[in-house]
Amino acid sequence: MHEIGMCEGLVELIRERAGGRRVTSARVRVGARHAVVDDAFGQAFTMAAAGTPAQDAELELVITPMTVRCDTCGSNSESVDALAVCPVCGADDVDVSGGDELVLESVSFGEEVPDVSRHPR
């Protein structure tokens, strides 16, 4: 499940940006070539975010398509299928481009996270 590695990096980036604030939501754009599974990505994010300011944050995942150019019929199209074939003629003799990004588009913050280590119990 490669989603875990991706989410660990995202959570670290979010944690750096949070500056002690609680993270309420994050929007991530992932290219179709990464072949992420929405549910698996959400679970991986939840695991990676546990114990960080991003814990319990709402995650919005946007899958961006790749461009598919068919060498058989010459058509150009977009696809979110990592194993793309030409949607016009069905050929698998295609060149794909794009769809390889991983972008943290936005992060929303709430109040500061209290530092419980400073307060005696």
From TrEMBL:
Single GO MF annotation: zinc ion binding
Keyword Methyltransferase (UniProt): no
Keyword terms of this UniProt record: Metal-binding, Nickel, Zinc
Keyword presence, Zinc: yes
GO BP terms in the entry: protein maturation
Binding site for Ni(2+): H2
One Pfam family this sequence matches: HypA
PROSITE patterns reported in the protein's UniProt record: HYPA
Binding-site residues, Zn(2+): C70, C73, C86, C89
Family as reported in the entry's similarity comment: Belongs to the HypA/HybF family.
Function: Involved in the maturation of [NiFe] hydrogenases. Required for nickel insertion into the metal center of the hydrogenase.
PANTHER family tied to this protein: HYDROGENASE MATURATION FACTOR HYPA
UniProt-recorded name of the protein: Hydrogenase maturation factor HypA
Organism ancestry: Bacteria, Bacillati, Actinomycetota, Actinomycetes, Streptosporangiales
